[in-house]
Amino acid sequence: SSGAATLSASDTARIKADAGGLALALGMGVGLSVGAGVADDDIANTVRAYVEHSHVTTAGDLQLTASSAPRIDSLSIGGAAGVGGLLGAAAAGAAATNDIHNTVEAAIQTNSAIVTTAGDILLVAADSATITTKALGASFAFGAVGAGSVGLALAFDDIGNTVRAYIGADTTGD
């Protein structure tokens, strides 16, 4: 090339998940209800900007850029109400599981020859993954003789990305 050579790869995967479950029970004797909301979200992508089995000659810079900016926004709601003339019982739960496991690579590899007559070689691999989770479990129970309610909310988030920028051992350059 007579100037700079640039190769870029990017990923901006997005997940927006809303999950909910509501329950209501009314009974002359016993009112029993159960409500749940569950969200399970996964992003697993591979983003690569690379030169392989190639000869590249440029008069300027050679830049390889791989970037990833995945995002998960998750809302999970569980609600329950149990009202009974004698006994009331309610249980509600909300759970959200969110995972991002991407591979992001900028590389010059496997039998490549790079010549830059008046420039630099720049490899950039970048990741800015984010997860935002809200989980709510709420319940209400009423009974003339007795009542019981339970609400539970759980959230499990995991970002386990691999981000690499490298030049392989069998690559030559000037």
Can you offer a commentary on this structure?
This protein has 174 residues and is an all-beta fold. Helix content is 0%, strand content 78%. It contains no helices and 15 strands. The protein has strands at 5-11, 14-27, 30-43, 46-52, 55-58, 62-68, 71-84, 87-100, 103-109, 113-116, 121-127, 130-143, 146-159, 162-167, 172-173. The protein has a 3-stranded parallel β-sheet with strand order 1-6-11, with no helix packed on it. The protein is rod-shaped. The model has no long low-confidence stretch (mean pLDDT 93).
Task: Please provide a brief summary of the model.
With 174 residues, this protein is mainly beta.
Spell out the key features of this protein.
3-stranded parallel sheet; 174 residues; mainly beta; single chain
Helix-strand topology string: EEEEEEEEEEEEEEE
Could you give the count of β-strands?
A: 15
Strand order of the biggest β-sheet:
1-6-11
What is the CA-atom radius of gyration, in angstroms? 27 Å
Unreliable segments (pLDDT under 50, ≥5 consecutive)?
none
Q: Mean pLDDT score, rounded?
A: 93
What proportion strand? Answer: over 45%
Q: How many strands, which pairing sense, and closed or not: the largest β-sheet?
A: 3 strands, parallel
Percent in helix: under 10%
Counting DSSP H or I runs of 4 or more residues, the number of helices is 0
What is the SS-derived class?
mainly beta
Shape: rod-shaped
> End-to-end distance, in Å?
15 Å
